[in-house]
Amino acid sequence: MTFCKDSFAHCCNGLLGKHIILLIAMCTCHNSIAGVREDRKAGDQSIRFVATEFTQPQLDIGPDGSKFYFDLLGEIYSAPLKGGQAMQIELGQGWKTRPMLSPDGKRLAFLSDLGGPIGLWVKTLGSPSEPVPYDTRANADVMTAAWISDSNLVTSGRGLSDIGGYSLSTTSESGPLALSIAGSWPSGRFAASMTASRDGNFVYFIRRGKLRRLELSTGIEGEIAGLPPGASQLRMAPDDVHLGFVEAVKRIDLERLKGPSYLSLMDLATGKITTTSCSMEPAADVDGDGPPNAAYAFLPDSKGILSSLGGKIRKCIFEGGTRSIPIRANVSIKIAPRAQIGTAAVGAQLRYPAPSPDGSKIAFTARGKISVLSTATGTTRRLTTHSQLEYMPSFSSDGSKIAYVAIEDDGSSSLKIRHVESGSEHVILSTNHVLANPSWSPDGKRIAFTEVPANSYNKSEIEIVSVDVATGESVSLVTGLQPRDHAKRVYPSAQWDRGSNGIFYLAGASGDPFQSLMYKEIGKEPAILYQLDWSILNASISPSGKVVALQDRKGILIAPSAGSSFEKITLDGDVLSGLKRIVHDDVDYMVWTRDDRIAWIVQNEIVVSDQRFEPRNHFKVEVAKEPQVPPPGRIAYVGARLLPMVGTGEITKGLIITNGAAIEYVGNYSKALIGNAEVRDVKGKTIIPGLIDVHQHDYWMNFDVTPHLNQRLFNNAAYGVTTVFDPSYPDLEASVLQESSADGDYPGATFYSSGSALLGQTGIQLYTEIESYKDALLLMRRKKRMGIRMVKDYLQPTRSQSRWLADAGRELGIGITAHEQNNLRTHMALVVAGFGALEHSIFLRAGHVYADVRKLLVESGIAMTPALADDQGLRFFATSPPSRIRVDCLTTDMSRKRLEEPRPDFEAMSLERTQKFETAEQYAEILNQGGRVSVGAHNLPAGIGTHWEMWLLGMAGATPENALRAATVNGALKLGLEGKIGSLAAGLDADFVVLNSNPLDDLKNTIDISEVVRRGRTLTWPTGRTHSTTWTTKESWQTCKDWNLGVGSVTPFGPRESFVRH
């Protein structure tokens, strides 16, 4: 809210004497919001069309009944009640909705996100003056409002950090008035749907499904019985006698959602409820209390309403009939330009820095191998010549040895000790569990490390163990730890104290208000040294014990040490803001040197400070890639039907020539072009581009020490999915996996990711604070250095934060995608702000959309990845016979466990009766109209889940060609990779799938795979590499361990009837 100091006393005059209702005057400062009004940048895209269909317009009618007001794609329009041309009302920037006429018809209130959060603004109609902010709070959205006089309103708001909590306040012509009832408001949802009597005496609202009435003059609140469960969209009739409401429909009840909702009236004098014949769009139950705003408006005589159904605005008389009002609205929308996604040179991701005790060396991991940097010369050398992966070095106290973790293809790990100079080494222990973060004690006698049971991600089964270097005997120090999802280093790590008597470590569980920096003295119970805000990614005590270094997304802070008192210190947001920040960058790792200096890593740079924490030494490290298998020479694929996805359409007798990793030629067969190429006869087959899945999560893999051979990426490629994008994956894991999968000889799909999503929900571990454009630029610049192409905005709460991210993306050449939110209007505002993509279904909670919304989505070019088949897709999998080799060998145990969970809600209905299928029909229609709908399997079984999502679009009405387009070129367009993948064209990567049958005849033929080609190489299991036994069930391991794609007597694909229920 905005305070006007000079007018405070005037605003409060006569109000402070009420002891029940606390009214604090907040005054309107017109100039205070002016700085928020921004002009569109050059290069905006303009979309113009005439709208005759309207998606869920919010409506109100003037007191004389001659005209009505409605919102349309972020603007407010007025139109004659008899029908005709609608006129846009000039209200400035921002996304506007919910028009509300004052009782005298002279003022128009509306909601807008101009000030950042959604606020209440008022425009004096017929006046050249700009709208005035009535209720614009810095930390809350105004959800709905109602006039209580010609100049006063009551509002219902929700804090930006709340999940469901609402609060009431009143606002006047002089400015907002905060209202609270002392001791009477419970926690949780309340006032979600709200209206007020025209005489200004009462506010009616729904709290926890019950109708409540608040008397404004006294603050007395009571319940009014008789309102049916699920009622929402309250609106008071002008006669102040009848209260209108609509029964919200649960999202899973598709039959009711397909039909209209009907207005009901409660007579407040008698309590009698009457259901009218006036229908409207079905009201979906969004968050337990139904939609907060009424999608209808009473006529001035209270004898009928305006509403919308089927995209048309309708006038309904309670004791008469219903007619459509023909309306035409000229729409002109300026859309901010989307980022032009660029490709930057990316240095090798350095991980796990370990300074030697004398400071002469820093060991680290890069490209899966340990190297040692000389701080004197800046040169590096490999520590070993081994082929297995090497992680997490730790120097012994005398600097002569390094302990490290070695990882094999099958996921087993070993803790090794290597002499730095002689090169001799030995294994101190090995296990099929994951070992991580070895830390050598100062006395050199013990090594503490983290042990993680295989496939235990997200479970409290992590231990910190200490092993005796001389005997190999180990003892558990700490048990029951959880992975640190929000941190750069996911698994907890131990730091020894100076006397080798105990360890420091971070602990905390999801839902805890704080995480804790603990101290565990061997043989004693742990003690909490610090309670830390969840924004802290890492905390480490200096070797001298004088200070503690704290790492967050904005750099490194220094806090005073708790010393030896072991008195718990809380470092929350307020305290953290007052600490000294020594690094202003999103660093990857930080570590202390023996002499109390700090070293940190950002991508491929190592910086070492002096003892005042000023940067002293900078090392930009270049680590060469391991030699790759040479790509094949020229290969000609002769005679197949080609579906290039670009150009003139299919080629019936085609020729593809690959040269190394790229396509040299695509077109009609020509013997003269083949020359010295190896010829592969593919007559009778069909070739499509490699499939692209642009919303798939790499769940249940072990982080920090991921094996080079990634199961899900291999499984994807085996099903023809040659490129995968994960819109939420830990930053450093994403950087490393992108790096390794970019190799031409990598045995799996090429991996891209957004890195960690930028979560805007406070109080959650993954929360990312963005308070300025500078913050957004810092975060996005770090993503750019990792090679991230598209960043995910995950529920950032205000317009300002979303625009800062979009602007930073444009400046740096990084795309922005957004997570699904409850409000369709929020998604449309992001489209206009220049976002490049939207994740999940934006219609699932919104109901049906019409030509206005479809036009915006198609013409804007926004990428949409609905990921609809997720839950229902498992039922496809359940119909697959367990003997099929491709299902047995390419499906994780975790997916199998999900199948065993009873799901009576899905078993009781067919796929066609679920709301997801109705939503899929809307996406299929947009896809057929040229919209950029793409495919994402979310967390379905890797590879086959992509086909299920594509098939669902086909079942919902997309043509086979367009469904294929969604799984190929549209995914490439989303990632800005259309010049590299997604179609069959000369110069692009040689990623394609050879099918035995034509998917244009039957889309399910996409699973009838003969051969998968990635970067010009036919996909096979790498020679000499071993499957992990954790990839399969024990029963199928004997079959799978010797299996090779397309080789052997076992047919790798079952009939398509095995994979789909017709």
Notes on the structure:
The chain is an alpha+beta fold and 1062 residues long. Helices cover 15% and strands 35% of the residues. The two termini are 57 Å apart. The strands form 16 sheets. The protein has a 6-stranded mixed β-sheet with strand order 2-27-6-5-4-3, with helices on one face. Strands 62-63-64-65-66-67 form a 6-stranded parallel β-sheet, sandwiched between helices. Helix 7 (773-785) crosses helix 8, helix 15 (915-928) packs across helix 16 and helix 16 (944-955) crosses helix 17 (960-966). Among the domains are: 51-332, Neuraminidase, CATH 2.120.10.30; 526-620, N-terminal domain of TfIIb (Single Sheet); 673-757 and 819-871 and 915-1023 and 1043-1048, TIM Barrel (Alpha-Beta Barrel). Residues 1-42, 162-166, 176-190, 285-290, 880-886, 905-912 and 1026-1062 have low confidence and may be disordered.
State the shape.
globular
**CATH topology-level fold name of the domain at 51-332:** Neuraminidase
Q: Provide the β-strand percentage band.
A: 25-35%
Chain oligomer state:
single chain
The parts where pLDDT drops under 50 for at least 5 residues are 1-42, 162-166, 176-190, 285-290, 880-886, 905-912, 1026-1062
- CATH architectural group of the domain at 51-332: 6 Propeller
The end-to-end distance, rounded to whole angstroms, is 57 Å
Query: Gyration radius, to the nearest Å?
Result: 31 Å
Strand order of the largest sheet: 2-27-6-5-4-3
| CATH first level of the domain at 51-332 | Mainly Beta
